[in-house]
Amino acid sequence: xxxxxxxLDLEPNVxxxxxxxxxxxxxxxxxxxxxxxxxxxxxxxxxxxxxxxxRAGKNLPKQRRERLEAAKNExxxxxxxxxxxx
Length: 86
Hints:
- By secondary structure, this protein is mostly helical.
- Helices cover 55% and strands 0% of the residues.
- The chain is built from three helices and no strands.
- The protein is globular, with a radius of gyration of 12 Å.
- The mean pLDDT is 86.
């Protein structure tokens, strides 16, 4: 996946960080500093994370997929959201 998109510029190697929290914090920083996003920062950050997980598909090792899925929960917590809340 590229480090740039029309939505936001990501920090290098954001999806390979070692903890779900560090991934979520990086995505949050990128989303909040972007001037090109079309929706709110939370939605942009979550969209990038989901896009990466879906794009990697079955080639993503189980442990890494679990870390990225856990990063979704961390991102929700950073924004004070609950699962299923817009």
